[in-house]
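Thread: Modeling a multi-component assembly for a lab meeting

Hi all, long-time lurker, first post. My supervisor asked me to bring a structural picture of a complex we are working on to next week's group meeting, and I have zero experience with this. I have the sequence lines for every component (574 residues in total). Could someone generate the structure of the whole assembly? Inputs are pasted exactly as I received them:
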Amino acid sequence: MASKAPVAGGRLLLGFRKWYYNACGFNKLGLMRDDTIYEDHDVKEAIHRLPERVYNDRMFRIKRALDLSMKQQILPKNQWTKFEEDVHYLDPYLKEVIRERKEREEWQKK
Amino acid sequence: MLPRSDTSALRCLLFSFFFEVYPILLKVCLNFLLRRLRSLSVQLALIVTFHPFQVTKLSSGLVIASLENYSPASRIGVLVRAGSRYETMDSLGVTHLLRLASGLTTKGASAFRICRGIEAVGGSLGVTTTRETMLYTVDCLRDHIDTIMEYLINVTTAPEFRPWELSELTPRVKVDNAIASQSPQIDVLENLHAAAYKNALSNSLYCPDYMVGKITTDQMHTFVQNNFTSGRMALVGLGVDHAILKQVGEQFLNIRSGTGTAGSKAVYHGGELRNQTGDSLVHAVVVAESAAASSAEATAFSVLQHVLGTGPRVKRGSGSTSKLEQAISKATVQPFDASAFNSSYSDSGLFGVYTISQADATGDVIKAAVGQVGDIAQGNLAASDLSRAKTQLKAEYLMSIENSENLLEAIGTQALTEGTYHSLEAITQKIDADPTAVAKKFMSGKKSMAASGHLVTTPFLDEI
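Re: Modeling a multi-component assembly
Sure thing. I ran the full set together rather than chain by chain. Output:
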C-alpha cells in the first residue's frame, strides 16, 4: 500500500506537470522555462555567468519568440519544445548566486 | 599600663612563637616551596632541552618544517615547486594569473568568505612567485591558526577558477604589466632570462601581452594538477606547533600525490636582447652561466659578487670599497651605478655585472666593468678585499633572516630543495671559497646580455 501510493501519485503528478507545461504555451514559441524567468538582480548575475554557447542559444530562442510574437504566429507542432527536452540550464548558476548573496547578508548581520 | 604579669605572659608567648613555632612554620613553608620549585625545575629542564626546529618528511613527499620562536604571531607558508619555469609554451602567463587568483572561490569557501574570514582574525594572505617556486604565506595571531589554516589549505589544494572570476582578474594583470614596464630593471632582467635560456627559465614572471585575458579555466586546472602535488610541496611554520602542522599535512595536503610532471632542464644558450627606448639612462647587464644553487661553486660566486660590489653599504655613501666602482670611475667621470648580478636556480645560474650609465658613456662603463672581473680572474685580488667580501656576505645572510618573512622563505626553500635545514653555523662556514676560479669561468663562459635605453654607444656582445 505504502509502495503503491507514491508511484501512482508520481505518475499522476507527472501527467499533471506535462499538461500544465503545455498549457503554459511558451513551448509553442520554442522557448524553455529558464528563458521566461523574470530578470531580477540575481537572475541577471546568473545570466552573466552562463557559458558562451548556452547564452547564445538563449538569445536565439528569445529573438525567435519575439519575432513570432510580432507576426502573431507560433511554430509548427513538431518544433514545439517538449517537456522532456526542457533543460533548466540557469538553475545551478542561480542557486550559486543566491547562496553567495545569503552568505554576504549573514556576514553583514554579524 | 598593663600589669606586669600580662606583659610577661605576652613576652613569653612572643618568645615561644619565635623560637618554637616559627621554625616549624618556616620548615613547612620551605618544604612546600621546594616541592614547587622541584616540579618547576623539571618543567624548566623540559623547556631547555626541547629543540625548537623540526623537519619531517612524510611518505607522500611533503616536507614539513617548523621553528618555534615563541612569538605571539605565527607565520605559515606553503611552498610549491610551480614557478614560471614549469609553464608550457601554450599556457605562458598561467603563474601570473595564479598569483593573482589566490583570493578566488575554492571548493570549501567562496572568495567573499576567504576575504572576510581572514580579515576577521586580523591575518593576511599573500603569494610570491619566483621562477622556480610559489610561496603562499599567511600570518595571524597564534590563537587563530586553525581558522587561517583552513583558508590556506583551500587556496592551495582546491581552487575552482570560475570563468567569470578569472575574467575579473584581467584588469589586474594589465595593471601588473603596466607597472613592470615602468621599471627598466624588470624589463632588462626579464629580457636577460629570455635571451640567456632556451626554455624553462626563459619564461617571464609576467603574462605576455598576447595571453592577457585568454587564459582559460582548463589551463589553470591543468597547471595545478600537474604541479601542485605533495611531492613538490613544503609546509613551513614559524611559531606553530610541529604536531599541528604534521596533522594538517597528512590529512589535507595529500590530495594530489606524487611528483607531478617534471619540468624540463634549463638549457643555457647565450643571446642578447636590446630594447631601444631612447631613455638617457641605459640599464645593461652582461652575464655568463654560473652554477646551480646547491653546488659548491655557488658560494664562490656569491663571494665574487660581494668582492665586485652590490651597492653602497652606507646610505648615500660612495661605495668606494666596490671593485667595480673603482674600475669604472677610472673610465668615466659621468655618474653611473654598477653592481654584480648573481642569481642561482636549482639546475643553473647567472652571474655578471649590471650597470646603469649615461647613454654616451655606456660603452666605456661596460668594458671597464667586465675588465675588472677579468682582472680578478687573473688573481689580482687583495686579501683584505677578499675577507671584506666574505664578512659582508655572512652579514648580509644573517641580517636577512632576522626578518620573519625572509626566515620563512629561507627555511622553506631549503626544505623544498634539500629536505633539511642547515643551521646558521653550517652555512656561514661554507662561505670560505676562492672567487678567482669562478671569475675565470665567467670570463671564459658564453655571455648573454640585455640592455635598455638609448643604445647608441652600448656595445654588442662580440664587441666587449
